[in-house]
Amino acid sequence: MRPAQVIVCTAVAAAVACAIGVLAGSSGFGLASHDIVWSIRVPRVLAGFGAGAALALAGALMQLLTRNALADPYVLGVAGGAAVGALGAMLLAGAAGAQLSEWGVAAGAAAGAAAASALLFGLLWRRLASTALTPAGEASTALLLVGVMIGAGCSALVSLILTLADEGQLRGMVFWLLGDLNGAVHWEIVWLALAVALAIVWPRARELDWLARGDAWAATLGVAVARRRRAVLLAAAIATGAAVATAGAIGFVGLVVPHALRRVGVRAAALLLPASAVAGGAFVVAVDAAARTIAAPLQLPVGVLAAAIGVPSFIAMLLQRSAPQR
Amino acid sequence: MTGALLEAEGLALRAGSAPRGRLLFDALDLRVFAGERWVIVGPNGAGKSSLLAALAGVFTPSAGTVRVDGIELASWSPPALAERRAWSPQFWSDPFPATVRETAALARERAPSWRAMLADAVDGDVERVLDRLLLGALAASHVQTLSGGERQRVAIATALLQGAPLLLLDEPASHLDLAHQRLLVDVLLGHAAGGGAVVASLHDLNLAWDLASHVVVLDGAGRAFAGPRDEVLVAARLGAVFGVAIHALALDGRARFVVGAGPVATAVGQQSRGEG
After folding, report:
1. Chain A interface residues facing chain B, Cβ-Cβ under 8 Å?
2. What are the helix (H) ranges across chain B?
3. For chain B, does the N or the C end have fewer beta carbons within 10 angstroms?
4. Is A310 a domain residue?
5. Contact, B43 vs B268, CB < 8 A?
């Protein structure tokens, strides 16, 4: 497919997904009362779209930055920090005998994401400036390793919090960890984060195509390697942190969406980044519509359904890829 | 204004980034004019890649200055410098699927238009360079599926399509078969004849003789010899630098270097490296 056709298809898919998201509900398919549509479904669709878009954008950025098609927003460890923050806030509120609002959880998640990002930047600041002449010396490996280690430390803390939490809190915590749009009434922050992240990376997206081929080579083409890499990492951290604070740790969006777009011919970063955002938003909105209707009145966590769709489609893509491409 | 495309003055390089790393060479001067082809030869680890990277401005020399068009590298704006010199590294990473055509055009479209990106428009210059390097039939193939030699020709296409007169190529022939080595020499001679200049590192001394107007020999032990090909690329010096017996034969008016079965001449490079 030509990139232009893919862009049109993605936009149409996004419009259809949003329409379905607004029309579908536990009470059946169709327009519900004015109140339900405007105070529940529309904010939920906006939150889901924003979170999916931010995660897919962050995934595309992390794949470019680490030169690894298996990278996703979570390799940064930022989402792990957000989980520690969100669950820690729930635990502390529980210990104080209070019921935490959605905003309180989101604030905890944002604080955790910011702390993990600060740690990531502190550890990598100098490495991000390297323009090694051989692939082995480049910053992408260090970035992956440090991110994975921060993530591992955070998941140990999450386990600790789950152990300390009482029965009543556990259910909310587990739902949050699985990725949940149920309480996502605040969609503004993730859209703001998405806009900021795109504004940081999109104007110089071409430089990311060069950086993926080689640090020093990109430098000879005029890329300010250190500044660009730090900016991309910052954008990915902002997008991931805001998405996770809004909707919990929805998996697979950030991994599968950029990968699928590349397979259908969207490869230049200037196209891949916005296309990933639109397709990622559409994916989460569609999956969320399914998650709250297929077992109605029971609402499945959106992260579970995303994985149920994401895992087989990713495996299918990988198997297809092993076929000769000439 | 000297008219030289590239100048190095008092260039000294040390291995690695440490200021006290092993001295590779000291006080290298060279001036590269349009039409010239400079070939860098020397043993593994002698600093060929580091020299090219220093000339490109992506490796900091321990002493000396590099000028492009008479202007010191530090005074160039990086995007403007990219218009004047292209550097092709020895290693490439191809982490994502991309066609040969897209990869060749990477550095050409430093600010690609939306229309070109959305429509996958065909660019006549890209097709011409791909055809010249016998890559036309592979234009729609994915770079990840190419053989080493094919990938290397794509890298040469990328460098040529950057549009800069000065080409700095790090081992552009290391994976090429004999026929494609000749093709590379023809392409680079054509680039120089068209007003450009080439600085390339090579291991094949005969290929070096065919391409070069000038040669830099690095002995890896602190010395660099630079000058016109016939003064620098001589068998006795090469034998001493590489530590093998090298004989020069004349064949159809060209010097051909062969490695003799005789005793190793004087392994200057190897011995000093052992000490260092």
Report:
1. 2-4, 7, 63, 67-69, 131, 133-135, 206, 209-210, 212-214, 216-217, 219-224, 262-263, 265, 267-268, 270-271, 324-326
2. 48-56, 78-84, 100-104, 114-119, 124-132, 148-161, 178-193, 205-211, 229-232, 235-242, 268-275
3. N
4. yes
5. no
Q: What ipTM was predicted for this assembly? A: 0.89
Per CB-CB distance under 8 Å, the chain A contacts of B49 are 133
Asked whether the beta carbons of residue A223 and residue B98 sit closer than 8 angstroms, the reply is no
Q: Is B30 exposed, middle or buried (0-12, 13-18, 19+ CB in 10 A)?
A: buried
Amino acid identity, position B117? M
Count of the separate structural domains present in chain A: 1
Range in A57-66, A309-318, B139-148, B203-212 with the lowest mean pLDDT: A309-318
Instruction: Give mean pLDDT, residues A91-118.
Output: 84
Is-contact A275 A8, C-beta < 8 A?
no
Q: What is the mean pLDDT of residues A243-266?
A: 88
Say whether B58 and A213 touch across the interface (CB within 8 A): no
On average, the pLDDT of chain A sits at 85
A165-175 average pLDDT score = 84
Q: Strand pairing of B23-32 and B6-14?
A: antiparallel
**Which residues of B fall within a CB distance of 8 Å from A131?**
58
Q: What is the DSSP string of A169-225?
A: HHHHHHHHHH---TT----HHHHHHHHHHHHHHGGGHHHHHHHHH-HHHHHHTT--H
User: What was the pLDDT predicted at B274?
Assistant: 38
Instruction: Tell if the CB–CB gap between A217 and B120 is shorter than 8 Å.
Output: no
Cis ω for the linkage preceding A297 (within 30 of 0): yes
A52 belongs to a structural domain: yes
Report residue A202 as tokens. Answer: 């999109």
Whether A246 maps to a domain, the answer reads yes
CA distances from A198 to A77, A92, A235, A275 (A): 21, 35, 7, 11
**Residue extents of the structural domains in chain B:** 6-275
Q: Which residue has the higher pLDDT, B175 or A297?
A: B175
Q: Dihedral of CA A210/A211/A215/A221: which sign?
A: positive
Q: What residues of chain B lie within 8 A of the CB of A67, using their CB?
A: 93, 95
Report the alpha-carbon distance of residue A111 to residue A241 in Å, rounded.
9
- Residue A326 located in a structural domain: no
**CATH code of the domain containing A235:** 1.10.3470.10
Q: Tell me the average pLDDT across A6-21.
A: 88
Torsion of CA A61, A65, A71, A72, to 10 degrees: -30
Which class is domain B6-275? alpha beta
Domain that holds residue A109: 3-321
Q: Indicate the SS3 state at residue A25.
A: strand
